[in-house]
Automatic annotation (TrEMBL):
<dbReference type="Pfam" id="PF04296">
    <property type="entry name" value="YlxR"/>
</dbReference>
<dbReference type="InterPro" id="IPR037465">
    <property type="entry name" value="YlxR"/>
</dbReference>
<dbReference type="InterPro" id="IPR035931">
    <property type="entry name" value="YlxR-like_sf"/>
</dbReference>
<feature type="domain" description="YlxR">
    <location>
        <begin position="13"/>
        <end position="77"/>
    </location>
</feature>
<dbReference type="InterPro" id="IPR007393">
    <property type="entry name" value="YlxR_dom"/>
</dbReference>
<protein>
    <submittedName>
        <fullName>YlxR family protein</fullName>
    </submittedName>
</protein>
Length: 94
């Protein structure tokens, strides 16, 4: 955690997957509804939100780190099926 900045002009959020900061419009807001991670496309759903790059790689990282329960202050595990549909499947080419 580095110093806190109060730059309101360009709101940044941290991706719960790769932990990199990005401008809010570039991130997908995620809220939890009844143990399910739900994409909040319009940013209007109530409650605590987590932010994620809408990419399979970042979703995968977030799931592996159990970042959603931590970020959303809920007991895991959470169903991320809907998020997977939104960001697409991870390419597993080896
Ligand atoms: Zn990311």
């Amino acid at each position: 955690m580095s110093g806190r900045t109060r730059a309101q002009a360009c709101p940044e959020r941290t991706c719960v997957g790769c932990r990199q900061r990005a401008a809010r419009p570039g991130l997908l807001r995620v809220v939890v509804i009844e143990d399910r991670c739900v994409p909040d496309h319009r940013g209007t759903l109530p409650g605590r939100g987590a932010y994620l790059h809408p990419t399979p790689a970042c979703l995968e990282l977030a799931v592996r780190r159990r970042a959603f329960p931590r970020a959303l202050r809920v007991q895991g595990p959470l169903d991320t099926g809907e998020l997977r549909q939104v960001v697409g499947q991870t390419d597993r080419k080896t």
